[in-house]
């Protein structure tokens, strides 16, 4: 009798393929709520919402942090250069010859000599510290981040203008505009019998630029190269040479050719060395945020486990009847795998779509929330940038989706295994 039953069960099992239509039908019925199963359906709903919000949050946060890093990197390298050549032992009075030799190195786009010094910048409104950088007009026009973002004024005839260019934030704080005079005071001035007297001179504002990074818009002052040499008592010398290369990530390979081309004692540093602490902190924060936000998806996956275990207990009689009708343990296991995986897959897809929509409209959403709450959610003075950036990385997004799907599938294995191991005799004994 037992042998005959086993044989008939095997034939029934052999007549259907894995993930057959009836398995999908039963799984879909279990996902639909009935009056007495409302609590289980609520748990499934919370699991779905948890996975959706977890995936969306991960995508949004990672995109914002990627955009934040890319924007900062673009602003920092756009005004400070990819590499810097500074003199050692002797002043850099042969900067023209060194610049021409370095520009001949393959991969170097431009070499811009500059004079730089700290100074006090004073206007009718207030006074503040600034970084004065003397650059020739030809070099200034190569700084596209500055030259392409002039709000008022012009860089035409900058070398002979005897004027300066400042950022929008500095102009607002000083209370000046085009044509107004700004007084620049340098602590390193003329030597007199009374000691060193600070150098003080007024310059008209000929251009106002807006980089979009509040730190730079409120700090940098561009001055004609020859005027900066005279102001900082450097005569025919330069502070250093800024280099822009085709591939900023390959600066390590270019150091030796540039040192050889300089053909003089020089210290060559790149953007990674000068900003190592800042970008390392960003990378650590990004990795920690990813780990923390992954816990949201993990909690939602645990909700799937609890919901399916309750469903298995509630459907014990149904499972027993299916088994007696010829359904194999594999079929029962697949039914509950489909039930749980459906929550995870649909939740992951919904989370991806939600995250994508938010990332594509992140700045509009920020402005709306700021208007709604009457607060400034993204203060440029704190976050350096004037708007909230978001950059979706395909590799990271794929990793988030795969992780959510894997966690969802793993969460369904144990409840499905318990359902498959259910003994029909024990399940129907007290029915």
Automatic annotation (TrEMBL):
Subcellular location, record wording: Cell membrane
TM helices/strands, residue ranges: 39-65, 288-312, 332-356, 398-417
Signal sequence range: none
Annotated ranges, domain MacB-like periplasmic core: 48-259
Domain of life: Bacteria
Any one GO cellular component localisation term in the record: plasma membrane protein complex
Residue intervals of the ABC3 transporter permease C-terminal domain: 290-424
GO annotation, biological process: lipoprotein localization to outer membrane; lipoprotein transport
Listed InterPro entries: ABC3_permease_C (IPR003838), Lipoprotein-release_system (IPR051447), LolCE_TM (IPR011925), MacB_PCD (IPR025857)
Key words, A-Z: Cell membrane, Lipoprotein, Membrane, Transmembrane, Transmembrane helix, Transport
Membrane topology of this protein: Multi-pass membrane protein
Recorded family membership: Belongs to the ABC-4 integral membrane protein family. LolC/E subfamily.
NCBIfam families attached to this UniProt entry: lolCE
Record protein name field: Lipoprotein-releasing system permease protein
Phylogenetic placement of the source organism: Bacteria, Pseudomonadati, Pseudomonadota, Alphaproteobacteria, Hyphomicrobiales
């Amino acid at each position: 009798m037992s042998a005959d039953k086993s044989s008939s069960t095997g034939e029934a099992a052999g007549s259907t393929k894995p993930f057959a239509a009836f398995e999908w039908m039963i799984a879909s019925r279990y996902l639909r709520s009935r009056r007495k199963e409302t609590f289980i359906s609520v748990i499934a709903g919370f699991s779905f919402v948890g996975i959706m919000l977890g995936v969306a949050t991960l995508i949004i946060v990672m995109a914002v942090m990627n955009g934040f890093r890319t924007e900062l990197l673009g602003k920092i390298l756009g005004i400070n250069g990819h590499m810097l050549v500074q003199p050692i032992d002797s002043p850099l009075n042969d900067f023209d010859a060194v610049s021409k030799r370095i520009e001949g190195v393959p991969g170097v786009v431009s070499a811009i000599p500059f004079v730089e010094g700290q100074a006090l910048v004073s206007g009718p409104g207030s006074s503040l510290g600034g970084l004065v950088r003397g650059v020739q007009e030809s070099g200034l026009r190569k700084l596209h981040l500055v030259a392409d973002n002039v709000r008022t004024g012009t860089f035409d005839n900058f070398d002979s203008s005897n004027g300066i260019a400042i950022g929008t934030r500095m102009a607002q704080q000083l209370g000046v505009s085009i044509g107004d005079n700004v007084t620049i005071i340098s602590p390193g001035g003329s030597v007199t019998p009374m000691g060193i007297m600070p150098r003080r001179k007024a310059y008209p504002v000929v251009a106002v630029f807006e980089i979009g990074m509040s730190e730079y818009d409120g700090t940098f002052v561009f001055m004609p190269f020859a005027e900066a040499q005279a102001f900082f008592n450097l005569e025919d010398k330069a502070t250093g040479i800024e280099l822009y290369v085709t591939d900023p990530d390959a600066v390590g390979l270019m150091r030796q050719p540039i040192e050889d081309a300089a053909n003089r004692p020089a210290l060559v540093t790149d953007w990674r060395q000068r900003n190592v602490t800042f970008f390392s902190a960003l990378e650590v924060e990004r990795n920690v945020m990813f780990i923390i936000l992954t816990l949201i998806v993990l909690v939602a996956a645990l909700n799937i486990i609890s919901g399916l275990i309750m469903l298995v207990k509630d459907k014990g009689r149904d499972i027993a009847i299916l088994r007696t009708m010829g359904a194999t343990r594999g079929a029962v296991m697949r039914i509950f795998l489909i039930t749980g995986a459906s929550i995870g897959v649909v939740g992951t897809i919904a989370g991806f779509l939600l995250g994508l929509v938010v990332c594509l409209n992140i700045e509009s959403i920020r402005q709306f929330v700021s208007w709604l709450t009457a607060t400034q959610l993204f203060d440029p003075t704190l976050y350096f940038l004037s708007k909230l950036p978001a950059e979706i990385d395909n590799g990271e997004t794929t990793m988030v989706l795969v992780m959510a799907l894997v966690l969802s599938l793993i969460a369904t294995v144990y409840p499905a295994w318990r359902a498959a191991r259910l003994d029909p005799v024990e399940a129907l004994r007290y029915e």
